[in-house]
Amino acid sequence: MSDTLSRLRNELAVPTGDRRRFLVGAAIGTGMAAQSAVRGGADFLLALSAGRMRCIGEPSVAAMLPLRECNELVMSFARAEILPRATVPVFFGAASFDPRLDLAALVERIAEAGFSGISNFPTAILIDGAYRRFLESVGLGFERELELLSRAKARGLVTLAYAHTRDEAVAAAQRGVDIVNIDLGWNKGGVRGVDTIVRIEEAALTANTITRAVHAAAPQTTCMVEGGPIVSPRQLEELCQVARVDGYIGGSTIDRVPSESAIEIVTAAFKAIGTLQQRIDGLERRLDRRSFPRSLWGHSAAIENARALFARLATTDHAVNIVGEPGTGRREVARALHALSARKARDLVSIACNDASAERARLDLFGCMAGAHPTVAKNRLGWLEIATGSSILLDEVDDLPVEIQRALVEAVETRRFWRLGSDVTLSLDVRFLAVSRGDPREARASAFDRRFAEWLGCFTIRLPPLRERLEDMPALVRHMISRFYKEEPAARARHDVADATPEALQLLASHRWPGNVRELRNVVFGALVRKRAGKELLASDLLAPLLRADVGIGDGARGARVAANAPGDARVAGAAGAIDAEAIEEAVAAGDFNLREAIEGLERVAVTAALGRSAGNASAAAALLGEVGRGDARDPGATVRAMMRRLDIEPRGRRRRAARG
Question: Under DSSP, is residue 28 helix (H, G, I), strand (E, B) or coil?
């Protein structure tokens, strides 16, 4: 204790203008709070009656009421709980309101008990109006408190004076106190906090004015601040940018506010254990009711894998990368992940990674102090700071500069970051979501930082292009039709379409869909706008004009396609007659035709359509496909099942029946 007291005295002896170490004092009321504060780096402790009041569930202001004999209360808990465990100097919060109190005897008792210093608390500075004037007039106000501190200093104790106004602070400094604590009022944070109209900007100006006056009157006096709008390190940082104070004393902000939130969180966590399975079951039921984004609808193997991973990640805080071509619904999946997460109360922050330089991206993400960059005149918050408690979507993360990737993954791993030009670290409390065109782990080495790629690619949801999940087309089309009538109020009265004709589905399946699900939505919506009243099914003649004529099945952009003007009653068996020979000739002449891909595409269209008409029954589908589709007499569906395996087509009707059972 003597070493720490000597260090404190040496710090207090440094004149104003020289470099002083920023001091932190903790005003507490229990031994547990004292130990925690010391482990956190507190330079000294204050044993105050207000700290004890907070521990019994009352606000700090209760210390100003005649509920207990204040000095006896402090002496009792401080000697039993704080002094035996403290490894830093401890100040005694002494009350001098009692006119019968012998100040010299009190100071001697405090010194003999082992306290290193004395502070005037409870204090008359927290009283105003006629009652304050009365206390001063009878000699029981602030002047008596200064007399107590003067006696303590003469006894060799360190002295700390609470002051609220400039005159009080200067008077204390002139009496030779070691520390002037500028009290900004009762703290406003937490459940028991007091409402205050004082903003941090006003408090900073007040503290700066008082500090300058104190240092002018007594250059060696240390000025600290406490209370008011300072409820977190952020507010203290803002105040210190204006006021040149030497330290901070935390009361409620160190023991009450953190413990309130910590106890609530931990208790709620234990409470949640008993109902966790119910919540999971409820989530699964909601997901079963098709609360997935539309881009995850369907029964193809790829989309079922994506949907299963989405369900597992929805309620976690893991970073998730959604990989796919433009139009596959990557951003919709990201928004849905955020909407189902614990961070949904705050808006999702989306950052475009492809429209800023590395320098601009660093400023946007991490923020900047005033003057630290030629373009920044005032302190600038970054998105990592603004999005605290929410999620950030890194849009087209493939284009994020590598140096920003390194800085970002460093912040993620340490859970801390700092603004450009600042040496104060900030806590990172953000969930990261990303959309990309490819898996970062599979990209070329120069495009992604290795650590960033491993972190971001750990949980990857892959969205296949629509041309690779044609078996999902009927479900997607039905969903688009339903969405159209929900989103278009003028069309609700004539909600007379629920599905598309087989010929329309065949036409849609023949398209290559470079715009993926987004393009399908536009095509279906456009067809429904053009639809005439009375038609109960969406027909191919409405869809054909909306499809790009140069994009069909096959590898090339002008591959073989099913003609848009195919007869409305054409059957699957006659689909070969609807092949556009002219388009094939053009593609061959241009060197942009792949016969194998074209044949495979036609087979996929035909088999998918036949299975759709036959509810997934391979034998019935074989009958619709003509001679090529039929197996032997003992197993008519053998050839169709072989084609399904080769083309990776699922029997949709059978899967739906299994799901219902």
Answer: strand
Contacting residues for 469 by C-beta, under 8 A, at least 6 apart: 298, 300, 302, 303
Which tokens hold the place of 401? 């500069």
Please list the residues that pair with 455 across neighbouring strands.
none
Query: Which two tokens mark 10?
Result: 């040496």
Residue 652: its H or E element:
helix 652-660
Hey, which CATH number is domain 295-464, 3.30.160.100, 3.40.50.300, 3.40.50.1370, 3.40.50.150? 3.40.50.300
pLDDT tens string 177-203: 999 999 988 865 444 445 556 788 889
Query: What contacts 141, CB < 8 A, 6 or more positions away?
Result: 124, 132, 135
How would you class 620 by CB atoms within 10 Å of its CB: exposed for 0-12, middle for 13-18, buried for 19 or more?
middle
pTM of the full predicted structure?
Answer: 0.43
d(C-alpha 88, C-alpha 81), whole Å? 14
Q: Are strands 222-226 and 320-323 parallel, antiparallel or unpaired?
A: unpaired
Residues sharing a CB contact under 8 Å with residue 513, sequence separation 6 or more, in sequence order: 465, 466, 467, 519, 520, 551
CATH class of 2-254: alpha beta
CB 292 within 8 A of CB 310: yes
* C-alpha span between 587 and 581 (Å, rounded): 10
- 234 neighbors 197 (Cβ within 8 angstroms): no
The single residue listed with the structure tokens 């408090």 is 203
Among candidate residues 161, 171, 220, 208, the one with its CA nearest the CA of residue 12 = 220
Q: Tell me: the pLDDT tens digits for 235-290?
A: 898 898 888 899 999 888 787 677 666 776 677 666 666 555 455 445 444 444 45
Pick from 111, 41, 120: which is nearest to 83 by CA? 111
In the chain, domain spans: 2-254, 295-464, 467-660
Both structure tokens of 243: 């006021």
Q: Which CATH code is given to the segment(s) 467-660?
A: 1.10.8.60
User: From its phi and psi, is residue 560 left (phi > 0), alpha (psi between -120 and 50) or beta?
Assistant: beta
Place of tokens 């169709």: 640
